[in-house]
User: Fold this.
Amino acid sequence: MLARTRKTADIVLSYGKKGIMALLIWGIGPQTAAQVLAKMHRWEEDLFAELLGAKLKYIQTRPFWD
Assistant:
């Protein structure tokens, strides 16, 4: 739990408002948010499109995790 909290804090410190918005999306955890935010996005819409894709992937794969 401490590692997850630390990673979340690192994302907020590094990316600011974009990091918070990424972490607020259902299905996007600190690891996925860090992967998406680390990529270069020329436009903010590209960032949101990639976050939406990650959310959809979560929705599709979540039933098979158990």
Observations:
- The chain has a mean pLDDT of 93.
